[in-house]
Amino acid sequence: MTLAGRRLDPLWLAAPGLVFLLGFLIVPVLQLLSVSFADPDGGGFSLAAYQRAFGVRVYLRVIGNTFGIAAQVTACCLVLGYPLAYWLSGLPPRRQRMVSLLVLLPFWTSALVKNFAWLVLLGRNGAISNLLDWAGIAPPGSLLFNRGTVIFAMTHSMLPLAVVAMLSVMGGIDRRLLLAAGTLGATRAEAFWRVFFQLSMPGVASAGLLVFIGSLGYFITPALLGSPQETMLGQVIITQIQTLDNWVFASALAALLIAAALASCLVFDRVFGLSAIAGGGSVQRGARSLSRRLGLWLLAAVARASALPSFGGHRFGWLLPAYCGLVIAVLVLPIVALLPMAFSSGDFLSFPPPGLSLRWFREYFASPVWVAATLRSFGIGAATAVVTLFIATLAGFGLARSPSRFTGLVFLLFLLPMIVPAIVVAIALFYLFAQLGLVATDLGIMLGHVVHALPIAFVILLATLKGYDWRLDQAAATLGAGRLRSFWRVAMPLTRGGLIAALIFAFLSSFEELTVALFIGGGLRSTLPKQLWDDVVLQVSPTLVAASVVVVVVVTTLFLLAEALRPRE
Question: Does the domain at residues 9-46+358-569 carry the CATH identifier 1.10.3720.10?
């Protein structure tokens, strides 16, 4: 058969995305890693940066802080999020979607905005401190600038991600299996622990992996709500680059984050397979391994020792909804608290405000700096959404149609921006763009945002296209429709909801992104999150809250639009 007669594998459609990731993720990260082995004096090979990282006590403490806080946040998210995900998975579809909106909205609201709200609420004269005083509870010292507050705020930011990751697996578990276990003599607790909990483990592991990797590069929360004792690697990397211009040492610290993230992914892949991250089917490997047998024995022991009914039991059935309602209330609290603070008539931030006024919104819209940053965020966000949608649609179409054995590898490559910590991606692109003259340009920020948004849009579109019946295209062809006409008249209307959702979430990912803008902006091109960061660090005023409300309104509107356009099952 000639080459012309062969049918080209649809996987080639992923080529533009792979080339983009190669040029703006893989190559820059490898280039950054190579810098970490350079001798700052002679330019040759050297391990001095790594010796400094592990040989100086202060940096050892920072490394310990980073991995310790990330592990604690991961544990808190899993423990607090599992009951919520379990409860959501048992709700009727319509009610589940409505409640899920309240869980997901805080996730899509900027971490900077939420942490700033906690900064006000937990302050010495904040609402929470006043509430504790009214209740006669004396907090042990300040509620701010300690490890507990950092872990609480980071857990608050990462908890929705953990819930969504677990819910994607729990939603596919057939609840009739619990009834079947009951007919075989299992108690309610035994049925939960030995059937449902075991089947939900891929989702728990996915949530743990995503939260742990996301927490490794965190710098917003410890910078705003922590003390020097809670300094994490992300903060040190920023200082080494922006203040000390020490690329060698910063690259070595970034290499530690990459190594930890890749090691976590390798362990996860060995047990469950990386496709479980996107809610795909996963295979639990090593069914006869010692660790698996030990885990089953432990679950059996927990089931036997459990004196109370499992979640949702008859006598204590009210506890689970009450707990979930409390968790959701805490998730939305900082967003709701921002609204009255933005309308404050006072000169300083307080909750509740002393009076109501529009003065800070007038000041926001009258400020050339704030308006320019806002317009730039909209422009870069729109460009990011269009480019991301184009790349992700081609890749999703190719993977959905391709029978190639390389689809798993391509899928993994498109998830790389989720695996590599965001701060590592940002400084790697900064190093590359400094050579290309793209620092302090809108194009440079946009390219960095595409890297950040690509996995989200790709997963949404891949799930949409995998649910599409491709036989409809064949039916259209038999009626005389060409490929282009078939795409516009058949495929497009049926997949429009997924395409619009991918477009909106790519825009939101760019609109709220801070890390890339912090480096690539070069201090000259400020997006709205970058301007918010500068004002939080340099001067805290109610104008900042007015800008935060603008962010919340944009995010809420687009998020609800994406949900409204999502196809209903």
Answer: yes
